[in-house]
Amino acid sequence: MNRVNCLIRASYQFFLLALLFLSSQTGQPLFAQEISRTSKPFEKYNIVLIFIDTLRADHLSCYGNPRKTSPNIDRLAKESTVFEQNFTPITYTLPSFMSIITSIYPYSHGVLEIFKDKLSPRVTTLAQILKTYGYKTAWFGPLDDPQLKPEVGFGRGFDDLAEVGYWWYHMDGQRQRKTFCDWLDANKDQRFFLNFHTYKVHAPYFPSPKYKAKFTKIKSREGVTEDYEGYDSAPIKQIMKNKTLAVEKLGEDLFNQFIASGLLMSGDRQQTEDFFASREKRNKLCSFLGSAYFAGIHFEDKAVNAYVQTLYDADILEYDEEVIGPVIEKLKALNIYDKTIIIICADHGEEFYEHGGFGHGSTLYDEQTHVPLIIHVPWIKQAKRVKELTQTVDILPTLLDLLEIPIPHQAQGKSLVGLMNNQKQPCPLHEYVFGRMEILSSIRSKKWLFVLHNDKPDPTKEFYNLRSDPGQQNNVYLKNKDTALKLESKLKEWEVSLPSYQDQEYSFPPDIDRATQERIRKTGYW
Predict the structure, then answer these.
(1) Single pTM value for the model
(2) What is the pLDDT of residue 30?
(3) How far is the C-alpha of 447 from the C-alpha of 436, rounded, in Å?
(4) What SS3 class is residue 148?
(5) Per-residue confidence (pLDDT) for residue 352, from 0 to 100
């Protein structure tokens, strides 16, 4: 036995020497970061990664919301590491979630525009890595959604793909809960990676009647569409109410075709659905309906704004109680909770008129960039709240580090395991975190936020003192120009340093008109 052990040790040492030699010849490290000493063998642990779309951190009660919006997430947080200052580098779905599963910034992986871009085959996703290490992998999400389509790259490395739908109103939590729990029943005896997504918190905010009244006694507000029946199931009513907007979003040709069809007068629901059945028409209708929903809401009216936020918070509570809680209880009932790493994260937040707008995909202020990151690790018994800056690109290297799996060189994020285990850091893990969109870029330290508008020959510059102005309302650029210019220089260094992983240029399909293409480039959405 000793001879065998010696042979194994000698083989391992030879293997390491070979890797070191390879690294010296190429001038590149084989892996981006060393594995943490506090890691555990991957063979013993499962992973559940939960994507909650459009969840801003400060609307969870464990992040300070005075409303009890997230009791099950809160209980998990008390046994986990909560990263209080976690940020996304972009504020719309497609590139943000792609950054999470690759640990590559959006303008490096290049998957920015729906209907067009795809992930390079040179990039390895989290699921592909885990599958290589023997994990059974499953992805549950809206498979026909252009933001998350499997063929874009989200399906890579998954053994099982399942549609769980958008669940805004009609697909209650029961179906999602049953889907996840049935899968856990079938796979409890093997090492697994379960990754699931929800749009429940995304606008339009339609909590079910059971939850709608949790945070308000008011039943409705003028201009606020209250349920799906007044939204997607009644496009004729919406078009009649918003003809100017309908012309803008549908385009004159399609709008005139719809008027000529006589459907506006007949009101036939099935024929209307058939009229908008093609992808081109359906996408235009979705764009119109989303815009019409927000157009009716007077966010500048404080009472209306507050009411809408109660609906958003009720959606959070509904998903927490109908899905998150039952999934955690299922893990416990199967006796695998103590063998499972659980990560809760989001792609971006949501604005409620903090900077004169609403929704997301338009700014790099906190209401859109500050997102939750909660990591439950069975062998880290002490709960911790981390105040250091972190980014969503840190999720992949952190997870791999926890499991003694080498972190790929492509990773642009950093492992957070040292922060989770109270290891002393000689300097902040991230002195800065970054953001970039089509016409915006940003750099953030713990004290400052610098935002650059790139859409003009003479770019607009914003600079905020986060300690005295956490809501980013008072631009102090002119008073702190020297400090701002230093951060601007750091921002430009970061942008120039980003490698490109795109291998080819992709084109929009012919049924996506130029106006829609331009809207996608500017906002991320059709």
Answers:
(1) 0.89
(2) 42
(3) 19
(4) coil
(5) 97
Q: Which residues contact 121 (CB under 8 A, 6 or more apart)?
A: 503
User: Could you report the per-residue pLDDT of 483-493, keeping only the tens digit for each?
Assistant: 999 999 999 99
Tokens of 71: 């009791």
- Asked whether the beta carbons of 464 and 442 are under 8 A apart, the reply is no
- Are 100 and 392 in contact by the 8 Å Cβ rule? The answer is yes
What residues does CATH 3.40.720.10 cover in the chain?
A: 30-208+301-431
Q: What residues contact residue 456 under an 8 Å CB cut-off, 6+ apart?
A: none
Q: What is 171-228 written as a DSSP string?
A: S-HHHHHHHHHHHHHHHTTS-EEEEEEE-TTSSS----HHHHTSS-S----TT---SG
Residue of 438, 455, 422 whose CA lies nearest to 523: 438
Pairing relationship of beta strands 358-359 and 351-352 according to DSSP bridges: antiparallel
**CATH for 30-208+301-431 (1.10.3470.10, 3.20.20.510, 3.40.720.10, 3.40.50.1980):** 3.40.720.10
Does residue 223 contact residue 167 with C-beta atoms inside 8 Å? no
pLDDT in tens, 180-214: 999 999 999 999 999 999 999 999 999 998 999 99
Q: Which two tokens stand for residue 287?
A: 């764009």
- Amino acid (one-letter) located at 77: A
Residue 45's Cβ-side half-sphere holds a number of Cα atoms within 13 Å equal to: 22
| CA 28 – CA 6 distance, rounded (Å) | 30
Name the stretches of the chain with pLDDT < 50: 1-35, 167-170
Peptide bond into 499 cis (omega under 30): no
SS3 category, 263? helix
- Distance between CA 84 and CA 499 in Å, rounded? 29
| Alpha carbon distance 448, 475 (integer Å) | 11
Q: Are 246 and 219 in contact (CB under 8 A)?
A: no
Instruction: Say if CB 205 and CB 151 are below 8 A apart.
Output: no
Q: Which of 42, 196, 204, 106 is nearest to 437 (CA)?
A: 106
- Quote the pLDDT of residue 37: 55
For residue 225, the model assigns a pLDDT of 87
Helix (H, G, I), strand (E, B) or coil at 243: helix
| pLDDT the model gives residue 421 | 86
What is residue 98's predicted lDDT score, i.e. its pLDDT? 98
Decide: helix, strand or coil at residue 144: coil
